[in-house]
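cache lookup: miss for this entity combination. No prior model stored, computing from scratch. Input as submitted by user K.M.:
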Amino acid sequence: MALLQSRRLLAAPRLAAAAAASARASSWWSHVEMGPPDPILGVTEAFKRDTNSKKMNLGVGAYRDDNGKPYVLNCVRKAEAQIASKKMDKEYLPIAGLADFTRASAELALGENSEAFKSGRYVTVQGISGTGSLRIGANFLQRFFKSSRDVYLPKPSWGNHTPIFRDAGLQLQSYRYYDPKTCSLDFSGAMDDISKIPEKSIILLHACAHNPTGVDPRQEQWKELAAVVKKRNLLVYFDMAYQGFASGDINRDAWAVRHFIEQGINIVLAQSYAKNMGLYGERVGAFTVICSDAEEAKRVESQLKILIRPMYSNPPINGARIASLILNSPDLRKEWLVEVKSMADRIISMRTQLVSNLKKEGSSHNWQHITDQIGMFCFTGLKPEQVERLTKEFSIYMTKDGRISVAGVTSGNVGYLAHAIHQVTK
Amino acid sequence: MAASIFAAVPRAPPVAVFKLTADFREDGDARKVNLGVGAYRTDEGQPWVLPVVRKVEQMIANDASLNHEYLPILGLPEFRANASRIALGDDSPAIKENRIGSVQSLGGTGALRIGAEFLRRWYNGNNNTATPVYISSPSWENHNSVFVDAGFKDIRTYHYWDAAKRGLDLHGLLDDMEKAPEFSIFILHACAHNPTGTDPTPDEWKQIAAVMKRRFLFPFFDSAYQGFASGSLDKDAWAVRYFVSEGFELFCAQSFSKNFGLYNERVGNLTVVGKDADNVQRVLSQMEKIVRTTWSNPPSQGARIVATTLASPQLFAEWKDNVKTMADRVLLMRSELRSRLESLGTPGTWNHITEQIGMFSFTGLNPKQVEYMIKEKHIYLMASGRINMCGLTTKNLDYVAKSIHEAVTKIQ
């Protein structure tokens, strides 16, 4: 019955009145399919239902402290208190967002000594965290980058990249990236594939802390990637969601972005402050286009605004004000750098402890990739059957691809995790 | 270095209403008045953060248990439920029958966009970009862009403003609806039509609903001024609720920018009313997918403020009082402006100033007269003759009235 109705609705413009009346008597939405369940949500739902006191949620994509609790940065609390005391008004932001924030965001990514930054040959607009920034950029490229409709993503990439670019009207391709045999970078495969990408296509690169694998190129490898990308004349789209959060050093994490620009590659860049400032729900992000000159930047900015206005008019202020205050106040900025390093250090320490605990358990496998990988996520190399056993027998929840969020590991449960992994892999 | 890929990107024209404010800011004349952009101002010409909002913000700031974790994709549950309840009414049959859904959005614009993207994908077939979308003539200029960017190819206007009689062209409107292809989408302003300030009466709404029902036209309400228009939440929601009571499935994009004064926090809600819970669930599941590629999940601060306020009887009462304060000041400025123009004997009739409702008034000034107002009198208003009543104060009423008088008598 539903199919019949949907066929009628498909031919709607030429429907006879009677058929229309029949379709209308039911709902307009009878033919709307149920959207597929979110795989990660499913993991969290199952985790919530589990009554095992030792249960672990390793699907969570947000930082947790060593007690497994969400962490609000002290510099954020301080910034919020300062903002509250100023009793500012709630007037609309400009379409491009809070200027103090966008300028500081560009400087954070590019570096204060960057020629591109100092010359003003860039435009940065405030975006709705990483997703919103990616989407604005994708829409901009769809409208103004006429050379190609193809966006090349690393294999694998963040699950949301594909639908974002698709909804923006672009097509998705991929290049080799992760080598499941070694749980590390398939560098020769990546170089091989990228060298064959048609000229003037769009290539997306994760600036640091690749999601979901945690596998990043080394600096020498980034140099080679920059060379081949330049040779193929590709438009480079950097996604930087973990600056500072990956290594603990904001400059180190932005090295690839800065290197590419120094090589004369005019990149576009999406930034997120969800993780590195813990501002997840405030939706703080930025989209940047490196241009030939400041005049071009003004033209590009005017077109970005034309894209933003019919999407949500202008961005939310709260998170941007917090981020701006932190980035622009010497004391708060210093404090932030310490805090983001401490978050990164805790993650790195959990990686180290997991590996040493696995050794203590007597595992004979090579777990080096766990400490070689960087950032919030780790591709353990576990197979679906092993993941299932971890869930069923040990109440440890992760996605089927063997990805764990290291943020969900604490000194209190890392031993249990190591024990469980050893049991399913020995 | 090779020529830039963006070398050919043209400079886009600035959004008119923001350009107006920019020009106003640069104007050094002491008499200047900004009757452009749509935000509330006090009688001192200042932005006004609602007292209840300041109070709730302090409560939120003092609550150490709150953090900045992600909201669910569809938004803060308490916000969604309360926001839709405000639009549909406590005793809404649709709520009782569990056939409503809500999507927290970035302002009214965001709600419109999510709704438009959904309709383009799922309404009247699958990905039917040819479904006609009707927007009132005139309307908020961003309506057009929202539906174009959502992928609709056939955007049309329906008659609305009758310039000669300075009122609603009901006959033209109904005629357009009779002639519209079945299943066309109509964007309806729930109250306080922007930019004309001219709303259909309840009886006129009934006629509109009857035609839309008979012709299978889809009602997409834009509700940006609930409470702000008349001072009464229920009165300003009458049209939306009437359509619901008539059995329509509809969308209502709500904005809390004006009635909560939360402009820059981007607080909006898309209310979905369907035939039954099952349909609404499937619709929401698809809207989730759209949200996920647009902003992933919405900002929490503004939604917390609204949810906290609406959920507390005392804060809710304070809020309604704050809203009435704003609405009353606008009504006062309307009556003061009208009486001055009539005292001055300004040519024409000026009852439309008090008959129109909400923030805006279509004065009837023509572009040349508007230019005179801006250039000679430093009074900034839109080329359409639209003025924001909130820009009027007891201090500038005389000057504005005299200037309008001059413009009308000197310029034809």
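stored under new cache key. Chain B is about 45% helix and 15% strand.
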